[in-house]
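Now for a concrete sample entry.
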Amino acid sequence: MKIIEYEEKYLEDVRDLLTELEEYIVSIDKDKLDHVHPEYHEKMALVDLEDVKNNNGKCYLAVEEDKAIGLIMGTIPGYSEYDYLDYKCPKRGIITELIVTSKVRSKGVGKELISSIEKYFKDNRCEYVLVDVFAYNDNAIGFYSAKGYHPRMYTNIKKLD
């Protein structure tokens, strides 16, 4: 297995990985709010890759036998003029996607991917890395916790009757 920067020849693999992640999120969503839209497979990878392109980001792929088996995407977005009113605004990288196909999970692929994006962020003088993790995704919460990540904010939800 090797870690490489995204290449367009892997677009279909990226689509498959992102769809696998979204299907997993749907399966653990206790609120039943997530779904896989019929156009998700075709469009989401393009949306994410455009976000990476427009926000000084990177997409790294874990490739084995010329097939992407995992990916991580991250961006280094700027702040708005209003963010400075109540926040120190340190330079930060944001992990926007991380998925390792279920066939090879728990074999160190995610660890290598996260190391790659963290190195990119460090090389770009980021002070922090942020990542949103779905509250019901206990596996991801445990993974990030083991890598030194901790919660800073919580989003609470209540269904209105």
